[in-house]
Design brief:
The protein is α/β, with parallel strands linked by helices and 224 residues long. It folds into 2 domains: 139 residues, Rossmann fold, CATH 3.40.50; 69 residues, ACT domain (Alpha-Beta Plaits), CATH 3.30.70. The protein is 26% helix and 29% strand. The strands form 4 sheets. Strands 3-2-1-4-7-15-16 form a 7-stranded mixed beta sheet. Strands 9-12-8-13 form a 4-stranded antiparallel beta sheet. A hairpin with a 2-residue loop joins strand 10 and strand 11. The relative contact order is 0.17. It binds ribulose-5-phosphate. Ribulose-5-phosphate binds next to helix 2 and helix 4.
Amino acid sequence: MLTQDELKTQVGQAALKYVVPGEIVGVGTGSTVNKFIDALASIKGQIKGAVSSSVASTERLLALGIPVFDANAVDALAVYIDGADEIDGHGYMIKGGGAALTREKIVAALSRQFVCIADESKRVQTLGKFPLPVEVIPMAAQRVARQFAALGGVATLRVKNGQPLVTDNGQHILDVTGLQIADPLAFESKVNQWPGVITVGVFAHQRAQVCLLGTPQGVVTLTY
Ligand code: 5RP
């Protein structure tokens, strides 16, 4: 029986075949992506470099000798490789468990193809069991929390070392439980309009086109 860590290693390695030689690849954030970055180091001579979605991924890429480009330096990327906290049967995802959702959505939007890498525990029928991360401007946090309460959700400010977690963008994260996200496209559009919301962790407009799912039987490729 493979461990969850081994499943992540498998999908991280499997994602290499989506990397286009001679190009810059979009790189996500998280423990699964860390496996991908480690695998990417083995072909670093074949790519120009990466656009990264977080300080943590940038540090890992640079430590392995992979050049990192500013997102503003590229017009488009062929592919973005990232993990997810949940993925449904349409390639819609919840992301942001690692607090990198805003930069992840920016790099995903720059990319022609989103390849999600995940172990099979991330696959769901309906999004919403995983607490939904929402990056907010701190002064809006309580108002946004009340707006979620009106939808039946309970929003909790994410804390690290006894203090509100501060994202790479200097903002805060609300984690929202109790939501059943039946229409991810409409939900994402609605929450995006609330004042003070920077990014909602529903990735429906930036959904995955491919998911490499780690299972005990091997990597399963799902396309949407
Ligand atoms: C970070 C993310 C990650 O992709 C998501 O949390 C999955 O992480 P992991 O691969 O560690 O399970 O959205 O903001």
